[in-house]
Amino acid sequence: GFTDHVALGNEEWNPWDADEKNELAASQQRYEANLKMIKHARSHLEQTSLRVQIWGKAAIGLYLWQHIFGGHLEPADVTAQWREGSQKAGKTYFSFLTGPSVVPGYFSVGAEHVVLVLNGREPAKVAHATQWLRFAQTLVETRQIRRVAVVLLGSEQCNNAWIQPYLKRNGGFVSLLFVTYDYAVVNEEDIFQWPLGVATYRSFPVVEPSWSMLHDPRSYLCNFLGTVYKNSSRETLIEILKQDGLDKLCWIAAREQWQPQETNESFKNYQDALLQSDLTLCPVGINTECYRIYEACSYGSLPVIEDVMTPGDCGNSSMYHSAPLQLLKTMGAPFIFIKNWKELPAILEKERKMSLEEKIQRRKKLLEWYQNFKAWMRQKFINTLENSFLPNDKG
Q: CATH says 49-180 is which class?
């Protein structure tokens, strides 16, 4: 109730009268607008048919959430014990949890459907991943959750047989598996190839393309910063660069031993090299697919990829015959693929003759392709979960 103050008799006249009225009307409007927003949000939540909680227990989860989903995490501090975020996408409300405090049985399970992000790179990691799978299995058996999907950082030689018994197709409880590298059992039905992405375990950031990244001339034709293993094609690469004095035109920093942790300086050097080079050389390591490919894309530096299969059990699946890197090739990645580093001098010669305008167009194409690739992976991930998890489906 708001009564007008009128200057009559002994009644005090209120000089702030008009202001009060305006303030009241404004707050009334704000209240109604908030109410509308809440109602709108409610109806939106009612439209979400699916609630999915993602448990990020491997660094690859940050690539999924921050790079592919464009999601945020609170707190922003990467060393925090517990970080979370949420997002509505398609018909699904996603929440994401990560950090050392996310431990089986010590946090509240906030959805009927769960995506477990696990590391299966080596035996110790597999043991840890198995504990999480057993925890999820118990939740399924006690009906606390209904369906489970797994995003797996697989072994670089594709030795992932340990996860097979957990898949529904083999009598287990995992409905869907998204796995890195060219794992031969990928079938596009319940097993899908997933991109390795950038090295989030080294805190590689989400890079926003800038005007200068697109338009500025770059100081180097190419870069390679990395470990050179004895008797590897990387040795050949360095020799070829030195032979023709091409190493003077490129940013080359080779080391003999791999270092898991970057120093601030070495990491800054690496990012500068990507930003200052037109091409990023990607020799094979234990697997052909490496973080470097995606990191180069982030900075508009075109990957030159040694397109050969590495030893192990990765390779052509019944679905595709374009291994290695069948996911990237299927998605039309605009990279330079070579079979031998002897092809490099001719590529660099061509590079020297390219105009800045041509390079700008190529950068635009690469950055656009990478944006579209991430958007496509996000959409595919959401569609696959919805098709599998929504109740109108056979599940």
A: alpha beta
What long-range pairs does 71-75 form, CB within 8 A, spacing at least 24? 71/96, 73/98
Burial of 394 (0-12, 13-18, 19+ CB in 10 A): exposed
- Identify the pLDDT of residue 148: 98
Task: Give the helix ranges, DSSP H, for the chain.
Answer: 17-47, 60-62, 123-141, 211-215, 233-243, 264-275, 291-298, 326-330, 344-353, 356-389
Q: Which 3 state secondary structure label does DSSP give 279?
A: strand
At residue 386, does pLDDT exceed 90? yes
Helix axes 291-298, 356-389, angle to 10 degrees: 120
Instruction: Say which residue the tokens 């950031």 belong to.
Output: 205
- The length of the chain, given as a count of residues: 395
| Domain residue limits, the chain | 49-180, 201-371
> What distance in Å separates the CA atoms of residue 91 and residue 391, rounded to the nearest whole number?
12
User: What would the two tokens of residue 67 be?
Assistant: 């790079």
Closest alpha carbon to 216 in 371, 36, 34, 363: 363
Classify the C-alpha dihedral 154-159-165-168 as positive or negative: positive
- At a CB cut-off of 8 Å and minimum separation 6, what does 299 contact? 207, 213, 271, 274, 275
From CA 95, how far away is CA 55, in angstroms rounded? 9
pLDDT higher than threshold 60 for residue 213: yes
Q: Is the CATH code 3.30.43 the one for domain 201-371?
A: no
